[in-house]
Design brief:
303 residues; alpha/beta; Arc Repressor Mutant, subunit A; D-Maltodextrin-Binding Protein, domain 2; 3 domains; 10 helices; 20% strand
């Protein structure tokens, strides 16, 4: 028997387990590591046989970590992340300080980017990389240190800190607003509505807005978009009414590019959270970006 100094299972098997635990999917882990799902299963079974305990339970087609699996994943996720940081620093020769932040397309383009010059002015020696995606799966990439998420503050293995909540209200272009100047909230279902689909499940669409407002409606008219920013461009072009998220549309409203239509206004069900891996030590660059985002959110809350 080959002696192993650290008395650990095969590193290849541990890598396969970490990927399967992170995705909660053998298929996604296999795709990431360019092997078959069967190979991932064999690697995990080898670890389970060596430890003498199951790491996953498999109800139906899904997989769920056991308590032992959660404990092992927590340690591996932290260790692999720290190893990734060290390897990255060695590759860069420590000439640069990097931080990678992930956010949705809408939040990045309409809130984060206009505020980043303030960070660059203070920390010009720090390189900021952006992962801009509406798929939360991309937020799990190894290089991502900070994330800005919309939701309710509960994500596995992440520390979540509320930046701010939001309010939502209907918005349209100036010409559309003038044409429908007598419209009330109860008129909204009869107007051409601009729907945003295929993004975060917590994102409130017209169905939820009208239901929460207690406004009766049947089949809704309008156009459908997969990008919030494009829906707002359609609204500015007087094509219909979009659900406006105040934190994202405030500047456009102040500039007159968008106009609030009707007096409907609702608290958004969730909030915007700054999150980071609770098993990972943030780099100095990530700590500085986190502090500035905290400061900006506090200033805007008090403004």
């Amino acid at each position: 028997m080959v002696y192993r100094f650290y008395d650990l299972p095969s590193l290849t098997a541990l890598v396969g387990f970490e990927a399967a635990a992170r995705h909660l999917s053998f298929n996604l882990a296999a795709s990431e590591l360019n092997v078959t799902a069967g190979e991932i299963g064999r690697q995990i079974k080898a670890i389970e046989d060596e430890l003498g305990v199951p790491l996953f339970v498999r109800p139906g087609t899904s997989v769920i970590l056991t308590s032992a699996g959660k404990e092992l994943y927590s340690v591996l996720a932290s260790s692999f992340s720290q190893a990734s940081d060290v390897v990255g620093a060695i590759k860069r020769g420590d000439r640069f300080r990097n931080v990678t932040i992930a956010s949705t397309d809408a939040f990045a383009s309409m809130w984060l980017m206009p505020r980043m010059p303030r960070f660059w002015a203070q920390h010009g020696d720090i390189t900021v990389d952006h992962v801009i995606s509406d798929s939360s799966r991309d937020y799990l990439r190894a290089e991502v240190e900070l994330r800005i998420r919309y939701g309710f503050g509960l994500w596995p293995d992440e520390t979540a800190e509320l930046l701010f909540g939001d309010v939502i209200y209907p918005v349209c272009g100036p010409g559309f607003a003038q044409e429908h100047s007598d419209a009330t909230a109860k008129c909204l279902p009869k107007l051409p509505l601009l729907h945003v689909e295929g993004i975060q499940s917590d994102w409130a669409g017209w169905d939820e807005v009208l239901r929460r407002a207690g406004i009766p409606y049947g089949p809704l008219r309008g156009h459908r978009f997969s990008k919030f920013f494009v829906a707002l461009q359609a609204a500015q072009a007087d094509q219909g009414v979009a659900v406006g998220w105040h934190r994202l549309v405030r500047t456009s409203v102040e500039e007159g590019k968008l106009v609030r239509i009707t007096d409907l206004k609702l608290d958004a069900p969730g909030g915007y959270y700054l999150t980071w891996n609770e098993n990972r030590v943030l780099s100095p660059g990530a700590e500085r970006l986190r502090e500035l985002l905290r400061k900006i959110s506090a200033e805007e809350l008090n403004a």
